[in-house]
Amino acid sequence: MTLQILLVDDNLTFLASVKKSLRLISNTSVLAEAHDGVQALALAQQLQPDLVLLDIVMSGLSGLEVAKAMQVWPRAPQVLFLSMHDNESYRLAAESLGSLGLVSKSNFVSELLPILAGLAASPKGVSS
């Protein structure tokens, strides 16, 4: 079973770092990358990933708006937010949307990779 992931961030350098780090985790696959909220919604609907790693602050639709729009889908993906703005209001908003949480971009290696390794090892919500 492989955890199918859609990466969404407007910072291309950060996306490349995340993608490189994901290669260290078995049973994960990056389906695609999106650089804004509109593109994220289109790709998520088309590809139906298990997980969307979603930046909160982007031009156009924010990550919070994207997550809210996906909530009504019959097979909504899990969402894990990423942000360089690690504050309580974003954490509460992420929680209220039923996400897996918020990971600070500055700590993504120590916080994100263990979460993804756990998800990839779990059969719940993972594609076969």
From TrEMBL:
Metal-binding is among the record's keywords: no
Record domain Response regulatory: where: 4-120
InterPro entries: Bact_response_regulator (IPR050595), CheY-like_superfamily (IPR011006), NreC/VraR/RcsB-like_REC (IPR058245), Sig_transdc_resp-reg_receiver (IPR001789)
Entries under Pfam families matching the protein: Response_reg (PF00072)
PROSITE patterns: RESPONSE_REGULATORY (PS50110)
SMART domains assigned to the protein according to its UniProt record, in alphabetical order: REC (SM00448)
CDD domains the UniProt entry points to: REC_NarL-like (cd17535)
Protein's organism: Rhodoferax fermentans
GO biological process terms on file: phosphorelay signal transduction system
Keyword Phosphoprotein in record: yes
Sequence positions bearing 4-aspartylphosphate: D55
Protein name, as recorded: Response regulatory domain-containing protein
Domain of life of the native organism: Bacteria
Keyword entries, A-Z: Phosphoprotein
